[in-house]
Specification:
By secondary structure, the protein is α+β, with helices and mostly antiparallel strands. The protein is built from 9 helices and 16 strands. Strands 14-13-12-15-16 form a 5-stranded antiparallel β-sheet, sandwiched between helices. The protein is globular.
Length: 300
Amino acid sequence: MKIAILSRDGSLYSCKRLRTAAEERGHTIEVIDPLSCYMNINPAAPTIHYRGRQLDRYDAVIPRIGSAITFYGTAVLRQFELLGSYPLNESVAIIRARDKLRSLQLLARQGLDLPITGFAHSPDDTDDLIALVGGAPLVVKLVEGTQGIGVVLAETRQAAESVIDAFRGLNAHILVQEYVREAQGRDIRCLVIGGRVVAAIERQAKPGEFRSNLHRGGTASKVVITAKERAVAVKAAATLGLDIAGVDILRAERGPLVMEVNASPGLEGVETTTGLDIAGMMIDYIERRARPGFRLKSGG
């Protein structure tokens, strides 16, 4: 097969591992910077051009699109879909997952338990918004944030009011969530491929930090998840229409809570912690799905 990876940086661990896994299986693979693509949106003969050349058709495309370029990156992915390439995560599913508010609303509609979450715009709503999630301590998140960026723990009511007002002063959309104290800075990252949890790790925040992201100094270890946690992770990925997803779960006293669903999960932490060949599993999944006559689940 001929495979493209949509990424701005082919030297990243995930891109290198996917390239190696594909080449070991005899496939041709190329890393393409989506911001260097431009498109002819022609119903009779749509094309994609890249750095002065027209791209041939690819059998499959692996989107590794950063949150900063979601709009243009998913537009390029849609063009590949239009040309008949199989997407490992459809553009519409990535857009759903990247919108934190929309994704939480979709998960809630399917009955998946979440941290209590508030969302508002008017500064006059600050007091009621804080009360809505049970008061301080609470977590304030930028809707567009990623890898723990734009996430603040407000330990007192005064601190919560200050953080919320500061974000609103920047005209930023924010979510306010309950702080799940019993999680103690830990969460579970479940890696879902094709409706099955293939790996899970527990991430622990560094001392003095509540964000467990590995990019922020957190550590990871192997973990055995429960049947309920497994079912929750699979349902969360399916709800957003994702074939590949990193589902982050908090272990609360009332049961597993879905914190976030990542449409482009990094492979380094889960592979190095578990020793599993996640990149190979992704390529194997593409081999089963990227066949002549496939149709997008959402219609693009």
